[in-house]
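Renewal narrative, Specific Aim 1. Our central claim is that a sequence can be written position by position from structural information alone. The example that follows is taken directly from our test logs and has not been curated for this report. It begins with the structure tokens describing the chain, in the order in which they were read.
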């Protein structure tokens, strides 16, 4: 793993004891897919842990999540972005977020199509948000053994990220979150600054 790529340890469905083992080994950045699980685990780990939310975020869970999270990877609509800004302002916090891009073939994945992100995430919108910092984009490739397809999807995400960065002219827009246990080397090759690794760290999930 290159030094300039941050490792998000995806700890969903794993008990706090396993997270503490990773913490003791030096890991400080953990990612959770479910709000309830993140909220339950956060008080049980030291305060220097950085919690990232990487799952689909429902509007009715935003208020519950915000006191505990450093970054939200999965902002899939302008409405959700505005709600996060409103709730962050209510508790006096500024929260980092990533815009979720839908580049996969699977319709079940959510997020902005690349052209929608370029159209909807504008400098004017960013100026309106006082308690949210849009730091970049996140994506998930199609779940497939065809690594050429995965590479094409990562390339599309990288290209969209660069276009958005040039369009927004926002210095803090510098994060590209993509790549998991099975495809992270390809993601890094296509410019990922954060990879989300679960199985390779914790082993199979404990349901």
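The sequence written for that structure reads:
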């Amino acid at each position: 793993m290159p030094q300039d790529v941050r490792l998000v340890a995806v700890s969903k469905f794993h008990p706090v004891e396993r997270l503490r083992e990773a913490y003791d080994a030096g890991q400080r950045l953990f990612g959770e897919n479910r709000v309830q699980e993140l909220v339950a685990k956060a008080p049980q780990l030291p305060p220097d842990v950085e919690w990232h939310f990487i799952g689909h975020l429902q509007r009715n869970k935003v208020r519950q999540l915000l006191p505990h999270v450093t970054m939200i990877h999965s902002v899939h609509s302008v409405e959700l972005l505005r709600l996060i800004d409103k709730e962050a302002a209510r508790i006096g916090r500024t929260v980092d977020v990533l815009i979720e891009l839908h580049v996969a073939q699977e319709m079940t994945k959510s997020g902005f199509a690349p052209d929608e992100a370029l159209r909807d995430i504008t400098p004017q919108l960013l100026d309106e948000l006082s308690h949210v910092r849009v730091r970049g984009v996140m994506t998930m490739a199609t779940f497939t053994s065809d690594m050429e397809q995965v590479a094409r999807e990562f390339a599309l995400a990288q290209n969209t990220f660069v276009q958005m960065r040039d369009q927004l002219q926002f210095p803090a827009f510098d994060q590209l979150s993509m790549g998991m246990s099975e495809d992270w080397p390809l993601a890094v090759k296509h410019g990922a600054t954060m990879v989300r690794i679960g199985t390779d760290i914790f082993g199979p999930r404990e349901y």
